[in-house]
Amino acid sequence: MGQADSLLPLIKDVAKAEQAQTLACQSCALYRLCLPLGLHREDLVALDQIIRRRDSFRRGQRLFESGCDLTSLYVVRSGAFKTTVSAKDGREQVTGFYFPGEFIGLDALHLNTYPSTARALELSSVCALPFDKLQMVSKSIPALQHQLLTRLSRALSDDKDLLLSLGQKSAEEKLVTFLIALSTRFSERGFSAYNFQLPMSRGDIANHLGLALETVSRIFTRLQQADLIAVQGKSLTLLQPEALQTKAG
């Protein structure tokens, strides 16, 4: 056997390894919305080795529960999730909705416990990033640390926007602002900005915005009668986006 023949198995192993590396984060449809953006190929390989992909969270199934120790950060792969916190009297407050490419669990970094409970709104899947391993990997990848800080900063900015909406806007302005924000988020994910599914219930929307369910229902009806939106089941169409922007203030 010649030298070339003896190296053939090694070459095949290297080729298989390189092929496997391309089947992970870099080939994901959410590549530009998630942590890998801006990472070098070798960094992607290191990150992919710690990621666990978890499928089939049924509607209502919990991803994590409030008060539990922080074990992983999660990125939504498909479907949608909501997070809630509970008051002492048992009432729940919807604190956020999460769609493909978005992180869940960043608010657990401060105390190393999840302050909220995350549930699937429909059949969903996630990528889990075990936090202890993520910390170890990020020490050698400065770009990864920057991406984490960027995601955390955006989450804080979204929270401030919500507080402004809740404190300064009318009920109609709150709902229209929420619908426009959804439009932007779906557009960023390659979906239609003007026709999309609402995975959450109207009760969840009302709870999130601090409104009564009856108020939200009335506003939806009023917007439909004004031909600003069209609603069929969970499907929503924004018929006059510019007019809605004006209504949002």
Automatic annotation (TrEMBL):
One of its GO terms (cellular component) is cytosol. The keyword DNA-binding applies. Keywords: DNA-binding, Transcription, Transcription regulation. The keyword Ion transport does not apply. CDD domains: CAP_ED (cd00038), HTH_CRP (cd00092). PROSITE patterns: CNMP_BINDING_3, HTH_CRP_2. It comes from Methylophaga frappieri (strain ATCC BAA-2434 / DSM 25690 / JAM7). Residues 35-133 form the Cyclic nucleotide-binding domain. This is Fumarate and nitrate reduction regulatory protein. Residues 169-242 form the HTH crp-type domain. NCBIfam families: PRK11161.1. InterPro entries: cNMP-bd_dom, cNMP-bd_dom_sf, Env_Response_Regulators, HTH_CRP, RmlC-like_jellyroll, WH-like_DNA-bd_sf, WH_DNA-bd_sf. GO terms for molecular function: DNA binding; DNA-binding transcription factor activity.
